[in-house]
Design a protein that fits this description.
With 252 residues, this protein is α/β, with parallel strands linked by helices. It is 48% helix and 15% strand. It has two domains: 200 residues, 3-Layer(aba) Sandwich (Rossmann fold); 30 residues, no CATH class. The chain binds nicotinamide-adenine-dinucleotide. It is an enzyme of class 1 (oxidoreductase).
């Protein structure tokens, strides 16, 4: 099947690497017109050149920049069909380890950005008759760890924020669907570097793998295919839902 998102204009945050880059690649392969954004300008431009898509430099925590980015997409493409809020950071630590500043920083990047992205994008998407918003939550938003106080709760907030915005869009009948994705541990360069930074990387890799009943970490395509489905009209009856793709992590 090709062309599943043919002609759709997609804005995807944090597209320089990892799941964002893989999702952008999959959307392009299915015919979308993709603009990625990232706070890392060098990596973002390199990825955009490699994939053959647009790039805008953006810090997703900056409300003024969100408004500019949406205006730039409208000027360049005249419409916006899909917003993928992928950019995020992982802040490790228990309630006693994390400073109030680091806790706040996790929420600003992981939650506030999604509120701002939806708020900025919805008017343009509605003007074009609707579309799909895909917000990156995490299996960590379902399954708590004593050492992920900020990230667990931020990703749970993303799933609930998604539901609230989905209901608002439904009430407005603006044609916009809003869903979240909840990946398990996916072997991205970010996760590779976390593993490499632990005292015993082999043991950490094994622990990450067996934590998921399926017995391995996910691959980026496991999530990229889900993003294509949610971006496409195939998912036209789905809204407000958390899409769990985690090798069984959340039910173990
Ligand atoms: N990799 C996993 O195992 C996993 C599991 C569950 C959920 N997730 C979620 O999936 C998404 C992508 O994860 P990943 O592993 O590919 O992450 P990553 O760290 O590899 O990529 C995140 C991208 O976001 C960008 N970014 C960070 N802060 C930004 C900001 N303020 N403004 C704009 N861009 C910013 C980074 O530069 C980077 O390119 C995240 O939302 C993450 O929480 C990942």
């Amino acid at each position: 099947m090709a062309g599943r998102v043919s002609g759709k204009v997609v804005l995807l945050t944090g597209g320089a690497m990892g799941l964002g880059k893989a999702s952008a690649r999959a959307l392009l392969a299915e015919g979308a017109n993709v603009v990625i954004t990232d706070i890392d300008e060098t990596a973002g431009r390199t990825t955009a050149t490699e994939l053959g898509c647009g790039f805008l430099h953006q810090d997703v925590t900056d409300w003024a920049r969100w408004q500019e980015v949406i205006a730039e997409v409208e000027t360049a493409h005249g419409r916006l069909d899909v917003l993928v809020n992928n950019a995020a950071i992982t802040v490790f630590g228990s309630v006693m380890d994390i400073s109030p500043e680091d806790f706040r920083r996790c929420y600003t990047v992981d939650v506030d950005s999604i509120f701002m992205g939806c708020k900025a994008a919805i008017p343009l998407m509605a003007k074009g008759g609707g579309g799909s918003i895909v917000n990156f939550s995490s299996a960590a938003g379902n399954k708590p760890s004593p050492d992920l106080a900020a990230y667990n709760s931020a990703k749970a907030a993303v799933a609930m924020l998604t539901k609230s915005i989905a209901l608002w869009c439904a009430r407005e009948q603006n044609g916009i669907r809003v869903n979240s994705v909840q990946p398990g541990t996916i072997l991205t360069p970010n996760v590779e570097s976390v593993i490499a930074g632990t005292p015993d990387p082999d043991a950490t890799r094994a622990a990450f793998s067996v934590a998921q009943p399926i017995g391995r970490m996910g691959e980026v395509d496991d999530i990229a295919h889900l993003v294509v489905y949610l971006a496409s009209d195939e998912s036209k009856f789905a809204t407000g839902a958390p899409f769990i793709v985690d090798g069984g992590l959340s039910i173990a």
